[in-house]
């Protein structure tokens, strides 16, 4: 078994920390602060197989002025960044803070 690099700043992974909007399946929206990291790097040979389907992960936290919603209800949801890029994700907790696991391309990485 190979040892994975640490999951923290300074590990060379692409990251995004900043404002975003969670779009719920019913179309409602809530502002959040997102802390995200790219998990899958096709140039490396030590990726976990599951990383191929969930390429990014992190957490989202409702901002103080957010409506009274439960982030768990964003399963699946869409995360929209200020630049307009979006990607689907699964919330892994709630109500005001949640882990998230991305589905498909990370919205903070240029194609």
In short:
This protein has 111 residues and is mainly beta. It has a single domain (15-40, 51-103), classed as Thrombin, subunit H, CATH 2.40.10.
Mean pLDDT: 83
In DSSP terms (H or I, runs of 4 or more residues), the helix count works out at: 0
Helix content bin: under 10%
CATH architecture identity: Beta Barrel
* Order of neighbouring strands in the sheet with most strands: 1-2-3-6-5-4
Approximate strand percentage: 35-45%
CATH topology, what is it called?
A: Thrombin, subunit H
Total strand count, please?
6
Question: In CATH, what is the class?
Answer: Mainly Beta
Distance between the termini: 31 Å
Can you summarize the main beta sheet?
A: 6 strands, antiparallel, barrel
Series of H and E elements: EEEEEE
């Amino acid at each position: 078994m190979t040892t994975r690099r640490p999951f923290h700043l300074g590990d060379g992974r692409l990251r995004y920390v900043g404002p975003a909007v969670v779009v719920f399946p019913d179309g409602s929206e809530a502002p959040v602060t997102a802390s995200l990291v790219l998990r899958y790097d096709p140039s490396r040979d030590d990726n976990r197989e599951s990383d191929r389907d969930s390429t990014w992960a992190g957490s989202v936290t409702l901002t103080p002025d957010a409506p009274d919603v439960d982030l768990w209800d964003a399963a699946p949801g869409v995360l929209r960044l200020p630049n307009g890029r979006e990607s689907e994700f699964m919330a892994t907790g709630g109500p005001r803070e949640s882990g998230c696991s991305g589905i498909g391309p990370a919205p903070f990485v240029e194609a």
